[in-house]
Amino acid sequence: MKKICLTVVAASAMLFSAQSLSAQEVAQAQIEVEETVEQRAQEDFRQIEIQELPAEVQQAVERDFAGATIAEAHVKEKEGEQKFKLKITTAEGEEKELYSDAKGNWIDKDKKEKKKDELDQ
Fold it and tell me: Is there a single domain that holds both residue 65 and residue 99?
């Protein structure tokens, strides 16, 4: 009887530890996938000189973020359209990452990601 109890306890311990390890592996795999997706998104953009930005994009920064400086500019061309990723420093010293089309219209990446998540569910 003692051996049966010990066997049950040992089997239970192995089962719970295997489930815990499996959950950790799944979480780690999910993190790796998210990092890969983020890297791919970054790879789509190529860095350009700030002077290469369309005047409309530069004017949008001046209009909507008075006193800000553009630290980096990146461009991505897809389906014949250009999208720009800007890293700016506001007049208050806050660093921001912005997305714009070639006409200086802001693209809200958070809204797009939320819509995509809703469609995936």
Answer: yes
Q: Which pair of tokens denotes residue 57?
A: 């994009």
Neighbours of 65 (CB within 10 A): 19
Cβ neighbourhood burial of 100 (10 Å; 0-12, 13-18, 19+):
buried
* Structural domain range at position 89: 46-120
Q: What is the value of pTM for the model shown?
A: 0.59
- Nearest-CA neighbor of 53 among 31, 38, 33, 74? 74
Structure tokens at 105: 């219209």
- Write out pLDDT tens, residues 2-39: 677 667 777 777 766 666 557 778 777 777 766 665 55
